[in-house]
Amino acid sequence: MTTPTGANTPSLSTPTVPHGVGNVSSSSVAPSRSKEPRDGGSSASGTFGVKSGLAQMLKGGVIMDVVNPEQARIAEEAGACAVMALERVPADIRAEGGVARMSDPAMIKEIIDAVTIPVMAKVRIGHFVEAQILQAVGVDYIDESEVLTPADEEHHINKHAFKVPFVCGARNLGEALRRISEGAAFVRTKGEAGTGNVVEAVRHTRAVQSAIRQASVMSEEELYLFAKEIGAPYHLLKETSRLKRLPVVNFAAGGIATPADAALMMQLGCDGVFVGSGIFKSGDPAKRAKAIVQAVTHYNNPKTLAEISGDLGEAMVGLNIEPDMKGGRMANRGW
Amino acid sequence: MSSASSSPNATVGILALQGAFAEHQMMLQRLSMKRRIVVVQVRTADDLAKCDALIIPGGESTTMAILARSAGLLEPLKEFLRKKVVWGTCAGAILLSKSVENAKKGGQELLGGISVKTARNGWGSQVESFEAPLQVEGLRDTSRPFTGVFIRAPVVFELVPSPSDPPIEVIARLPPQCLPRSQTDIADESDARTIVALRQGRHLLTTFHPELTNDNRFHEYFIQECVLPSLS
């Protein structure tokens, strides 16, 4: 009241959340999973509390695919909140074909030694021995990923059996809740990796959000039926309906290539983004990486987004999503 | 509206560049205090100017420092630390340290403010992350332990106060039976590495995450013991 604010003076402070089509309340957060304190008890590691807690620390951040220590350092300097260590980015897996497997543990160790931020790595769907190896290597998170060639076409890994936490991809609410039921402490959209085309990530986020909105107004009887229809465990669906969000942190992944793509996924209600091929397949990786990191923080501020989106060099070449596309539809892997 | 001293509200900012800022916000909104607490997410210097106190949340300290620099927030934050109350949790604790071990190659930008030297990921990688019951001095219902959630947590390596600094008050230590098994060389209970929460002057530092529990006693302590006294 006492400060004169002319109608033409632009406000520099963070604007309030615009109520766009897909916007969800920014105050909704995945619940804490920490244990009730026990008097004189000892410490406990590998709890679901510390597994989902690390995902909560990654929120509002960008996780970048890197194939060597040099790229990992570029990602860290750009402000990545974690890196995903792999031998080939999804765009190359598509182009080269063949069976894509867990990366060489020696290479992953080099990346762990090169950076201070968390290091994640991918295992094939259902390949629990690759997961045992990565846990022994000391990675901070495992991605049981459809980007690699599945090792089991019926079962996913029992992720409760591990101390290291897991992130998994999902296309819809049922799939997300099945993965959480198996022990995933963190969920991401599948999108369509290696395409630089954000359309599938948008489709998957919209599908999850829409199903959560439906569930949030259902009666108990309707929830039992809905659980059966979407193949989700009832107790997790009920919790989702009560929270009006997924019970764990949810990132966008698969096709994000520009700062605007990243901000779009944030405005649609994701907690952060994975960028795979989008950075190191572009003309100026360091600059683009930094811009995407800023876009995720300032996703609600179009003026800042305009400043950071300029002069970034070539974006990665995009692919259209077609039935006979090179490398196929990776999102269809996983059950 | 313009003078904070006549305002019945206390405005608490949460640095919202990256990390678990929404969790702190939820905790503060659940508190019922005599004075109304207004919570502001801080992403710019203008946001910061509205605040009476600030929480720097958990997240990645390198990411936050880089984002603070590009948002022109580094100098305003250092200035804020000289005048007002700040609480750093985990990554926030690293940013408040005078110096840091295991920093990224080429070093890491810090805000300083508390005379400690911390080590990043001091207990090891994520598989070493743990929960432990803590006895915290001054918390409501003190005899009931508070769950400390330690996620790739920093370790207080050394207290490095200069004579002109305000005294450091340790408010919680990891009990010996809760030390990670990998830390076999900590024989002495007064070893700095067992310190997990401390106060110095206006500021509060915790290496764990009170915002990841359903227990709001730590947030209540911060408002009651640090924020409100600084406003009177």
TrEMBL record, chain A:
D-glyceraldehyde 3-phosphate binds at residue 206. Residues 17-32 have a biased composition (Low complexity). It catalyses: aldehydo-D-ribose 5-phosphate + D-glyceraldehyde 3-phosphate + L-glutamine = pyridoxal 5'-phosphate + L-glutamate + phosphate + 3 H2O + H(+). Keywords: Lyase, Pyridoxal phosphate, Schiff base. It is an enzyme of class 4 (lyase). The active site is at residue 122. Gene3D superfamilies: Aldolase class I (3.20.20.70). Residues 48-253 form the PdxS/SNZ N-terminal domain. D-ribose 5-phosphate binds at residues 65, 194, 255, 276-277. InterPro entries: Aldolase_TIM, PdxS/SNZ, PdxS/SNZ_N, RibuloseP-bd_barrel. Pfam families: SOR_SNZ. GO terms for biological process: amino acid metabolic process; pyridoxal phosphate biosynthetic process; pyridoxine biosynthetic process. PROSITE patterns: PDXS_SNZ_1 (PS01235), PDXS_SNZ_2 (PS51129). Residues 1-16 have a biased composition (Polar residues). Its EC number is 4.3.3.6. Pathway: Cofactor biosynthesis; pyridoxal 5'-phosphate biosynthesis. The keyword Lyase applies. PANTHER family: PYRIDOXAL 5'-PHOSPHATE SYNTHASE SUBUNIT SNZ1-RELATED. Belongs to the PdxS/SNZ family. This is pyridoxal 5'-phosphate synthase (glutamine hydrolyzing). It comes from Heliocybe sulcata. The lineage of its organism: Eukaryota, Fungi, Dikarya, Basidiomycota, Agaricomycotina.
UniProtKB/TrEMBL annotation, chain B:
Keywords: Glutamine amidotransferase, Hydrolase, Lyase, Transferase. GO terms for molecular function: glutaminase activity; lyase activity; transferase activity. InterPro entries: Class_I_gatase-like, PdxT/SNO, PdxT/SNO_CS. This is glutaminase. The active site is at residues 90, 209, 211. HAMAP family: PdxT (MF_01615). Belongs to the glutaminase PdxT/SNO family. The keyword Lyase applies. Coiled coil: none annotated.
